[in-house]
Amino acid sequence: MDYLEEYYNNYDEDGRLLSRHGQVEYLTTMKYIRESLAGLSDPKILEVGAGTGRYSVTLAKQGLKVTAVELIPHNLEILKSKLDGTEPITALQGNALDLSRFADETFDLTLLLGPMYHLYSKEEKLQALSEAVRVTKSGGRILVAYCMNEPTVIQYVFGLNHLREVMDLNMLTSDWHCISEPKDLFEMVRTEEIAELDAAVPVRRIKLVAADGATNYKREYIDAMDDETFSKWMDYHFTICERQDLIGASHHTLDILQKE
User: What is the model's pTM?
Assistant: First the structure.
């Protein structure tokens, strides 16, 4: 908690999602949120790990009923500062591992877009996922975001020349899986680990999507694009983001589940 709170007290998450390269992840996530809400007349939405409200506040300002739960007080303060009091949103401090304040089968759509980045054991990940599934209505959807292992190895370990450092610190397994602790802030997974979590809860996978695909490998090029070129990049990205042969190479993935 201390490492995480210190990090987010000094990190501009909104700035990342508003950058050209950050918009790819944001626009992709919003596309699939809208897909998941299609056909629902008055949906109840829960975002667990709402951060500074990039998604929750946007959805609430569109008139959707949102409950936003955030662990870090600093983030929650920023989220609340974006509201003018007219939005149908309830913002609460809370932990993804314990959603006991909510009854079973309460929400039509549950968003878990940040907590899996910071949970370091399979037991914790499964607890967070199980809680998200529990509070979601039967037939409702759960959207879960993950940070992926291979882009970190490719870009950080090799691309930024940290190989010796991570080897000396025993931060890699023999099969090149990153080993993270709370002080490292982010937990990296592979697609088979996501599938194992899904298999342990009563859900059916709708899609596993590359939230940013190739974008972060070339972020300086993406950030320099004019509007027309960026529009074409988004068209390309949306064309390939569901291709399963490319999923593991995306920095972020979005697992779209339906509760059975």
Answer: 0.93
H or E, element range at 9: helix 2-9
Instruction: Please count the structural domains in the chain.
Output: 1
The answer to whether residue 232 scores a pLDDT higher than 60 is yes
Token pair listed for 13: 């998450």
Say how far residue 231 (Cα) sits from the centre of its chain.
Answer: 23
Q: How far is CA 185 from CA 60, 72, 117, 127, 166, in A?
A: 29, 14, 8, 19, 15
Asked whether residue 166 is assigned to any structural domain, the reply reads no
pLDDT digit string, tens, across residues 127-177? 999 999 999 999 999 999 999 999 999 999 999 999 999 999 999 999 999
Note down the domain range covering 100.
2-148+182-259
Residues found in the chain: 260
Strands 107-112 and 44-48: parallel
